[in-house]
Amino acid sequence: MIGTIPIFLKRQSEKILISSLGFAAGVMITISVTDLLPNAFSSLQDSYLFFPTFLIVAICFCIGVIFSFTVDHYLPQEKVEYGRLYQVGIISCLAIIMHNIPEGIITYLTSEANLHLGITLTLAIALHNIPEGISISVPIYYSTGSRKKALFYTFISGISEPFGAFLAFIFLAPFVNSFVMGLLYAFIAGIMVHISVYELLPEAHSYQKYEIVILSFLFGCGFMLLGHFFF
User: Fold this and answer.
1) Which helix (H) or strand (E) holds 29?
2) What distance in Å separates the CA atoms of residue 114 and residue 178, rounded to the nearest whole number?
3) Which of 28, 153, 161, 167 has the fewest CB neighbours in a 10 Å radius?
């Protein structure tokens, strides 16, 4: 819902969008490299030697990239531009809901197995969801002039995350072990890196304000690295 802030501002919405995209990319890449992949490796090393573990992590990482690419390929995606039709916001809302339900499942299972990693993953996903809120609320507001509609559809997309966690609590928790979590960590890392490299950063660069993109990306990386001292 933080992503709805631009609809209450008269100016600078584009800069906020660019900064949010770059910041989220920095956060997601950093957590993938410093948390998810190392935890995937350590979880699988309980059962395998170094090389098989490395190979399994690499394969699951690539599967995550392919999965994310496939989802993005088949889901309708349109660049957010002010003044676009109401349907753009609705399509973005539906696409983000389909992304958020698995994210909720992943966050719950990760927190159940490793609270430290669950906290950092929760923070990373929450920051990543801010530009998602922007991508829904901005086109709906600018196409309809209704803040209520923008807030409503943004809320629907956001609430799908805890709904995914609820599904995990009811159906999936009893089947989780260190091996499954190792596979899942690598898979998540692949998804996050793909989203960052092929979606968030190119979208931010498309506005041709490169200094803002670079600074916000580095700030996102530094923010997560600093977070290691507190979590």
Assistant:
1) helix 13-31
2) 10
3) 167
User: Which distant-in-sequence residues (6+ apart) come within 8 Å of 212 by Cβ?
Assistant: 15, 18, 19, 22, 204
pLDDT given at position 86: 66
Task: Show Cβ contacts of residue 204 under 8 Å, excluding neighbours closer than 6 positions.
Answer: 18, 21, 22, 25, 212, 213, 216
The model's pLDDT over 137-150, given as tens digits with 9 standing for 90+, comes to 877 887 777 889 88
Residues 6 or more apart in contact with residue 189 via CB below 8 angstroms: 32, 33, 36, 37, 40, 61, 64
Task: Name the residue with tokens 């498309």.
Answer: 206
- End-to-end, the C-alpha distance of the chain in Å comes to 24
Which class for 1: exposed (0-12), middle (13-18), buried (19 or more C-beta within 10 A)? middle
Give pLDDT, residue 218. 93
Euclidean distance between CA atoms 168 and 161, whole angstroms: 11
Locate 64 and state its tokens.
Answer: 């995550």
For residue 208, which phi and psi values (nearest 5 degrees)? 60, 35
Q: Which residues contact 13 (CB under 8 A, 6 or more apart)?
A: 6, 82, 138
142-201 pLDDT, tens digit per residue, is 777 788 988 999 999 899 999 989 988 888 777 767 788 788 889 888 988 888 888 778
Q: Rounded CA gap, 47 and 42, in Å?
A: 10
| CA separation for the pair 25, 19 (Å, rounded) | 10
pTM of this prediction exceeds 0.85: no
